[in-house]
Amino acid sequence: MDKRWYKEQVVYQIYPQSFCDSNQDGIGDLKGIQSKLDYIQNLGAQIIWLSPIYLSPLDDNGYDIADYYQIHPRYGTMADFDDLVREIHGRGMKLVMDLVVNHTSDEHHWFQEAIKGKDNSYHDYYLWLDKPNNWMSLFGGKACEYVASCDQYYLHLFSKKQPDLNWENPKVREEIKKMLHFWLNKGVDGFRCDVINLLSKTPGLPNGKASPILSGREHYMNGPHIHRYLEELKMEVWNQYDCFTVGECVFLTPEQALTYIEDEKELNMVFQFQHMDADCYFVKWFLRKFRPIRLKKALSRWQEKINGRGWNSLYFENHDQPRSISRFGNENYRFHSATFLATYLFCQQGTPFIYQGQEIGMSNAAFPDLEQYQDVETKRIYQIGKKIFGHKNMMKRIQLKSRDNARTPMQWSDKEHAGFTTGTPWIEVNPNYKEVNVEKNEEDQDSILHYYRKLLELRKNHEALIYGSFQEKFAKDHHLVCYERNMDHESFMILGNFSEKCLDMEKKIDLTPFDLVLSNYKTSTTLLKPYEIRIYIKR
Ligand code: TEU
Ligand code: CA
After folding, report:
1. Which of 15, 118, 151, 378 supports an S-S bond with 402, CB 3.0-4.6 Å?
2. Which CATH number does 468-538 carry?
């Protein structure tokens, strides 16, 4: 197993517009981020990933890019960006940017040219159909849209303001490589590659199998030329830098993952989604009751399949997912379920990803009114879903699953708007900010934040927790979590109770050969209390 910095370090994801507002216009910005670098460093994270900050009409909060070379003025200037990179590197930290190249904004000048007519030189930068096909958008509804000036339809797997790029066109690939060099030469240390397994589409964009779950998906998930494109990026760009890549890959199995990450051949690691199905069927809006065993099974499968052949990413939260306490834990056990989840996940083999606010136990805002939501996906799904399920039922789904649950402002203090801004925040603050905030976490030695620091420090100081092998015990147990991390002469055991009921393990495990290293309860008996978790080391 090659030892690499991005395997040993911890990533902290920032959603820039919701992190910290330095000029009180209600929107987080680069100077705000700069003012919080101490905080991130003290947490024990060394890599910062920024969600998109490029020029954009913000239909999808920046995942719709209008110019890859410009910073959106609401976040600051290119000089602010260069400053931020310098500060980050000055601390020995790294910066990872979001790379969104499956699509651009419809306001990108390539697309503005492309719609002028079939003979325009940018026309085939995008994907066109003479007749619509049956593909469905990941945001709901049809995936193609008519353009009168061309008498054609363009493909958009996401919103109609996000036309898909034509990766078959070598000119598109040249443009992307040029842009990557631009950011890498500025000192950026890597990329989180948005929906990277969707780049390649079956030529001709034929109809797919009709399915309630995304008709057409067999024509663009891990499509025919995806590996050729990624090899090209790797050979012609990434290999020339000490650069880190994590590819977001929707609906990926571990077997498929290995085709991208075995021996890091194309990407260093992927974000997979299988453990995100622990409370839904395949598509997030089709709810089912959360069961810990489903989460356990999915995570363990990835550990076992990837172990020794590639490297995992470890995440429960990001800007697209509801908060993990509300979803997999229990808000009534905020401290214990938050620390349980962190320990259970981050002691596995892979790179830990923390999403802003996770380290202080932020939970779902679950806004009751549709008007409180800003997300394009939420609004679109509501329109489609209310015809089938009705208003009340749709609102229930949205409260549990809307991406805005993760996008409310970072809760810094109990001051107005949680200390995020003194202006009017672009989205409402979670009303629980008086209880749940950084300041309170700092003051309380027994807070979630302090626990995170101890946990990350422990991982940093023990190679077995980073590179050690993974062996699960009690795999079929619905509530007991137990696994070992072994390496050379060091061996750890993680033991926890994934439930609200006490769990007796006296007859299950002999703890005599172990020493306790870290735990989220003050006393340890043979009874595991609600969401109790312990890290043991073998003597
Ligand atoms: O998300 C890809 C994706 O398929 C889902 O996570 C999506 O956000 C949604 O939850 C499906 O129900 C990436 C970005 O992370 C997301 O923010 C963007 O909206 C999307 O790509 C398009 O760029
Ligand atoms: Ca601002």
Report:
1. 378
2. 2.60.40.1180
